[in-house]
Amino acid sequence: xxxxxxxxxxxxxxxxxxxxxxxxxxxxxxxxxxxxxxxxxxxxxxxxxxxxxxxxxxxxxxxxxxxxxxxxxxxxxxxxxxxxxxxxxxxxxxxxxxxxxxxxxxxxxxxxxxxxxxxxxxxxxxxxxxxxxxxxxxxxxxxxxxxxxxxxxxxxxxxxxxxxxxxxxxxxxxxxxxxxxxx
Amino acid sequence: xxxxxxxxxxxxxxxxxxxxxxxxxxxxxxxxxxxxxxxxxxxxxxxxxxxxxxxxxxxxxxxxxxxxxxxxxxxxxxxxxxxxxxxxxxxxxxxxxxxxxxxxxxxxxxxxxxxxxxxxxxxxxxxxxxxxxxxxxxxxxxxxxxxxxxxxxxxxxxxxxxxxxxxxxxxxxxxxxxxxxxx
DNA sequence: CCGCTCATGTAACTGGTTACATGATTTA
DNA sequence: TAAATCATGTAACCAGTTACATGAGCGG
Lengths: 183, 183
Fold this sequence. Notes:
2 copies of one chain form a homodimer. The first copy, chain A, is mostly helical and 183 residues long. Chain A has 2 domains: 5-92, Arc Repressor Mutant, subunit A (Orthogonal Bundle); 97-178. Helices cover 64% and strands 5% of the residues of chain A. Chain A has 7 helices and 2 strands. Chain A has helices spanning 5-16, 22-31, 41-53, 76-86, 101-106, 114-144, 149-182; strands at 57-61, 70-74. The first copy, chain A, has a two-stranded antiparallel ribbon. In chain A, α6 (114-144) runs antiparallel to α7. The first copy, chain A, binds a DNA duplex (28 and 28 nucleotides) through residues 4, 6-7, 21-23, 26, 38, 40-43, 45-47, 49-50, 64-70.
């Protein structure tokens, strides 16, 4: 009854995006802006298999012509498991600040020379800005497109997070510039 | 020459915190505010072993009395590997917005009843606020304590990220409250 | 002397990655 | 008709988790 993060997301997608194929789930994961979800076959199909074994979902053959295909649907047990997973008591990890590989790397920047540090920070600035712009666009589209509150909130959260990263880098660059100016 | 995220962090800690024991590294990971790093023996010791095999670090026996202990030190090869790891070209993942288990869960909130949703959001609000306060304190301490720029920047980034999460939740709550008021 | 912390490890398990494989269908 | 995409899967590999084990030193 304890779902992995991927299992839960797959189950959740089957639940909210209606009965669908495993492939459809894969595509959603692949296209998600966050790089966390690879949506690789080697991850998704075994996860679906486990969900089937656990009776969290049911599969019905739905072949269009000769092409084999399975439509996956949520079971009542699956809904129960999902609600469990959503229970904050069960997933305390949802409370702690997520780790950020970029932030992690800052810790070790002192190992680089001054010019290497500058290079790193300039690159990070450019990339985080780019990312923020991409997400801002997505947020705008969802807002204008009248997506449901939750989807908009997710986009908003992602945007704020992207802005946090830009802030972090630009503040560091400014700080170092002012230090250099003084010296 | 391709380091896992954990291997790189272990290597980096050995590099910046001077020669130290594997246990010392474990403690740093355990105490880190972000829940990503468990610092479990089963992860750290094998990682150290791999770094030793790869000649990224060297070990010298440093037993105090009868207690066995190994001091780990960075090698020049290790420094090279770390610089590689810091190279943005090598770690593009550092550019994408990090995934957030809380944000992930928002996507599936529509499966809950209205009151369950409220419960979830209120709990999330309380917890993210608490987390933000904790991190704010840490940031203050580092600023006042004259920590180096990078450590302060990391704390700042973590704070901004915590604030982003609070924003995300509070905005969603407000939005739903105003919807309810209208209805 | 009992229990906690220091300090090291090991073994079983699990879940995700990479890469491969198959065959049907669509599109250029 | 060749290439891309739909749709399914499998197998080897790897790293991290959980849990266990050992033994020295230290504080109450």
